[in-house]
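#onboarding

Welcome to the new folks! Below is a worked example of what a typical request in this channel looks like: someone posts a single protein sequence, and someone else replies with the predicted structure as tokens. Don't worry about understanding the tokens yet, we'll cover that in week two.

Example request:
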Amino acid sequence: MSSTTSAKNGTWRNWGGNVSARPAREVEPASVEELAAAVRKAAEDGLTVKAVGTGHSFTSIAATDGVLIRPQLLTGIRKIDRDAMTVTVEAGTPLKRLNMALAREGLSLTNMGDIMEQTVSGATSTGTHGTGRESASIAAQIRALELVTADGAVLTCSEKENPDVFAAARIGLGALGIVTAITFAVEPVFLLTAREEPMPFDKVLADFDELWAENEHFEFYWFPHTGSTNTKRNNRSAGPEQPVSPVAGWVEDEFLSNGVFQVAQWVGRAVPATVPTIAQISSKALSARTYTDIPYKVFTSPRRVRFVEMEYAVPREALTEVLRELRTMVERSGLRVSFPVEVRTAPADDITLSTASGRDSAYVAVHMFKGTPYQAYFTAAERIFTAHEGRPHWGKVHTRDAEYFAGVYPRFGEFTALRDRLDPDRRFQNDYLRRVLGS
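Example response:
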């Protein structure tokens, strides 16, 4: 599931296979001191620096032809503070390992995304999120950060210490420094009951406000070329635990969501005309089910079918209009879309460049199977999203630039001014940051 570097020619590729880079050298620091030294050495050699996690971003946010920092050795829990109810982890720790370690300690994050292969720093730096009525992205659960800045200094920030850096660095895009440790708020582990059931597309849109208001975590998948969706409601539960049985779990998560789905994607890629029929079958394959388990076993699911993705956050009140326009566009375009469209929500937060910064948001994600031409579909979808002042996920395909972001992020200038102060020589620059933040 991780990014790969082929030793033969030193080429790094991301998980989706749509981005590659050839760094001048790679470093695997075993301590914060070694990382700081690597940054200082890069400056001496006139090279830029990027840290890369598991390569789950579809943008070239982590690509560099300079020094590539791999944080594999910077993993594990530094400290659990039960009085403050926080956990401090090394930046290279995969979310999966954090979730499992917390569960053993009887603790959990409040909310999380649906993939847990990413490192904690990669996930937070790009604004990774799940869905929630009150609970927001993973970055919104950060209480303190440690980062190595361009001059090789180690800076800690929180609401009390360097609060201006804290406001921005929780979703820092790798532009402000290299995150070395993160302190998250945690709570005693709890149970969630998940209710998954098919629902007609028109009914979901008509009842969306109620479905959002009545559930702590509501999301749904719409299958283009059909009038069908699969909805998922996650709510806290007093128990008892009723996990998905191993057989049913394998059928739903491995066989249908990964195995059969993979074959269906291959068929659709080879013979696009079959896609609407496959979509009809796919939308009916997943039956209703209810189960109760600890959070990470409910929020996350395996993703073995590789894809490329675009996701935009739009104002929550614009969601139904956006989805209607998306449906009309797909119907009129002659496009063959074999991957479901995923819809989630997040409350407004106070992080400078968070996709939900200052506004209640709904997320619409469009996907295409890896290796399928996605430009026409994504371009048409992006036109709809941007007409509603959409903000693209920093780690997913988009074509926006600094000029656009200055218009949709009221505090954009605050972020770029901080970057000028922390990284005046653009040690952490790459082509992607040049485009989205300006040079």
